[in-house]
Amino acid sequence: MEYIEHDKLKFLREGWQKDIHIISAGPSLKGFDFSALKSKAVMTLNNSIFHIPKFIHPFYHVYCEPVKIEVKNYIKMSQDTRTKCFSTHKCSGWIQIPPFDNCRNFAFEVAIKIAEKMEYNNIYLYGYDFSFKDGYMYWWDDEKRGEEEIQKKRIILDNQKQVFNDFLQKNNSSSKIYVVG
Question: Mind giving me the DSSP string for 132-158?
Fold first, then answer.
């Protein structure tokens, strides 16, 4: 689609709402009543776009994995032309943004930075767990993960949780950030 600088993101903002609800993958959303987010400004991250209920239409989606490795996901994620898709990588049909300073540019950080640049007053984060809950890794998991898989993934999730906590601590924005759940 196009390349856009951070200061121009505010012009891509949808609607009049002052709040944005960012949906990630954490298991705290297992059993969550998504009907509360119907008609709200919603942004999805990574694979959460494949699992949100059909009555939720995300305004935005963020995916920052390398395109060459994840090209099938990029194609599948961009099927709904009503959703503005963002990445730090160049991909046909996606809005490419430059990496943000002072962060590692994981999708969970990039989504918050986009919301801030779009001048949303309140940013609500759902599924930003970076942990397992009752053996589940993602809120859409049907089966619990085995102990071996949990141990391997726990190291990655612990690292991401530390990155996220550092990001929140260093982030200086006029937007208020709320971690839900």
Answer: -BTTBSSTT-SSPPPHHHHHHHHHHHH
pLDDT score for 56: 94
| Nearest of 88, 108, 99 to residue 179 by alpha carbon | 108
Nearest 5°: phi and psi at 23?
-100, 120
Tokens at 107, concatenated: 């999708």
Q: Is 36 exposed, middle or buried (0-12, 13-18, 19+ CB in 10 A)?
A: exposed
* pLDDT tens readout for residues 101-152: 989 999 999 999 999 999 999 999 999 999 888 889 999 999 999 999 888 8
Q: 48-82 burial, b for 16+ CB within 10 Å, e for fewer?
A: bbeebeeebebbbbbbbeebeebeebbeebbeeee
In contact, 19 and 47? CB cutoff 8 Å: no
Q: What is the pTM of this model?
A: 0.94
Cβ–Cβ under 8 Å, residues 173 and 118: no
The answer to whether the beta carbons of residues 136 and 145 sit under 8 Å apart is: yes
Overall average pLDDT of the 85-96 stretch? 95
